[in-house]
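Page 37, continued from 36.
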């Protein structure tokens, strides 16, 4: 599909039916009738951040909720996750807070490290060694050296591209005060995942003031990166939700029909082997997005809230399984590392045996780890 045609389709031009049928056919061919999710706990390692994005409620200043988790806090969450059969510890954190907040540098010093990236590596190792749950690190902008630091303890990593357009950094736009959201820096981070051989999750954020053309350009850029690097294992298509205590609280959210076209467009433009993920807690009737070619619901926690969208609880896993089954698909838990990357090229050799031991014969999460019966045999879990 060429760029102009893709833009016309997103703008509501004729051909949407064909877009959806093509997207569903690509998904069926590449992924079958299995829809996955990652059974995870959420570790908000620090809610301090160097950037200010006008839709974000995650980041907070010191004294108003901006802080680091201590090693004891981190371990308590990870241990609860291990007990509930979780296979992913999602480290989500503000980007390089030590560049802005003296309190951040002070805390890091008290832990014997100089940067938040080093603290993420130390905490990832602690979680892996003490609980066996796989860290999936999202510490923001990274270079190859940062990925090499994390890779022995965090077999997969991620960072949303959000959007490729530098226009979103202009005055009055949501990333004006967010230096880490400079598209070139984010593309360089994704490129580093190819060089460092890290299975990588990225994605687009839809509805933050971008145009349909800028969505298409972002998806085309991710498609090119995926083809060239081989590291992109999944692309998240996430819809903006207006949060009460933000500057964008009155901004329009993407309408469901438009968002579904973006999801289908992602499925058509990205290579078939790249998983297309949509968070099920941000769309009321999320199962209709299966018609747009989705094959993954992303990280869903039986225990912790979605710290990025705390007002939107994750669906209960039984309900997620039932609604997915009603649409004609089997719901299966996966590891944070997709089957295609479970090999010595993409996983640190010291970790590969653990990853393979946690996977079943198809590369999804083994029932011996999650405690969840295989499809067709009954209960889906907590
Ligand atoms: S970089 Fe991330 S954590 Fe920081 S303000 Fe922006 S969205 Fe929030």
């Amino acid at each position: 599909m060429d760029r102009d045609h893709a833009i016309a389709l997103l703008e509501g031009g004729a051909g949407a039916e064909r877009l959806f049928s093509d997207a569903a056919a690509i998904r069926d061919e590449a992924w079958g009738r299995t829809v996955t999710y990652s059974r995870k706990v959420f570790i908000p390692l620090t809610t301090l951040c160097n950037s200010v994005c006008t839709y974000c409620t995650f980041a907070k200043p010191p004294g108003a909720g901006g802080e680091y988790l201590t090693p004891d806090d981190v371990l308590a969450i990870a241990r609860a996750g291990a007990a509930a059969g979780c296979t992913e510890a999602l480290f989500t954190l503000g980007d390089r807070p030590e560049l802005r907040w003296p309190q951040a540098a002070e805390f890091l010093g008290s832990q014997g490290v100089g940067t938040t990236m080093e603290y993420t590596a130390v905490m990832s190792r602690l979680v892996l060694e003490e609980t066996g749950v796989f860290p999936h690190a999202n510490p923001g902008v990274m270079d190859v050296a940062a990925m090499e630091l994390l890779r022995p303890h965090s077999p997969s990593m991620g960072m949303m591209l959000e959007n490729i357009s530098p226009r979103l950094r202009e005055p009055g736009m949501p990333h004006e005060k967010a230096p880490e959201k400079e598209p070139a820096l984010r593309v360089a981070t994704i490129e580093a995942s190819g060089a460092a051989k890290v299975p990588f999750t990225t994605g687009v954020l839809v509805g933050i003031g971008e145009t349909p053309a800028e969505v298409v350009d972002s998806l085309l850029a991710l498609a090119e990166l995926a083809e060239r690097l081989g590291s992109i294992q999944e692309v998240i298509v996430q819809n903006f939700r207006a949060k009460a205590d933000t500057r964008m609280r009155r901004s329009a959210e993407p309408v469901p029909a438009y968002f579904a076209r973006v999801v289908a467009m992602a499925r058509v433009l990205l290579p078939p082997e790249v998983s297309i993920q949509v968070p099920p807690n941000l769309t009321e009737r999320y199962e209709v997005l299966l018609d747009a070619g989705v094959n993954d619901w992303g990280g869903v926690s039986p225990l912790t809230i979605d710290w990025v969208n705390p007002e939107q609880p994750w669906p209960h896993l039984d309900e997620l399984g039932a609604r997915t089954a009603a649409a004609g698909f089997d719901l299966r838990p996966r590891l944070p590392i997709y089957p295609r990357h479970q090999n010595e090229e993409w996983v640190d050799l010291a970790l590969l045996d653990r990853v393979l031991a946690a996977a079943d014969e198809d590369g999804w999460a083994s029932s011996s780890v999650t405690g969840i019966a295989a499809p067709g045999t009954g209960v889906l879990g907590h």
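Strands lie at 34-46, 88-93, 134-138, 156-158, 200-206, 232-239, 275-277, 296-300, 330-334. Flag for discussion at group meeting. Residues 16 and 25 are 14 Å apart (CA to CA).
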